[in-house]
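Colleagues,

For the teaching module next term, I've prepared a clean inverse folding example: a structure given as tokens, and then the sequence designed for it. I'd like students to try predicting residues themselves before seeing the answer, so please don't circulate the second half yet.
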């Protein structure tokens, strides 16, 4: 899951909810996309090694992997990837 932290400040509550759900799921890795790793640490607190990664060079933006919404990439058994964008009005539905 990719979370873009340099966008909308009011969206951080939604991002934190998704972050906490993804921490509990062994199948998720979390990429925090932000120029400020300090901001990520202040916002999310515990950042388990091997589970949470920083993209402080904003490569995910450069490669078009994310927009302003949280994005989840899923890999099926055949090795094909699908992309799911989570809009903030859908966040109550949880992770895909």
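(Answer key — instructors only)
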């Amino acid at each position: 899951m990719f979370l873009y932290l340099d966008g909308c400040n009011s969206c951080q509550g939604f991002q934190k909810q998704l972050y906490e759900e993804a921490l509990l799921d062994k199948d998720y890795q979390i990429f925090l996309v932000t120029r400020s790793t300090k901001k990520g640490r202040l916002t999310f607190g515990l950042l388990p090694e091997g589970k949470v990664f920083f993209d402080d060079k904003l490569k995910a933006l450069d490669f078009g992997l994310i927009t302003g919404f949280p994005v989840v990439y899923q890999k099926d058994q055949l090795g094909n990837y699908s992309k799911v964008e989570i809009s903030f009005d859908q966040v109550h539905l949880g992770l895909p």
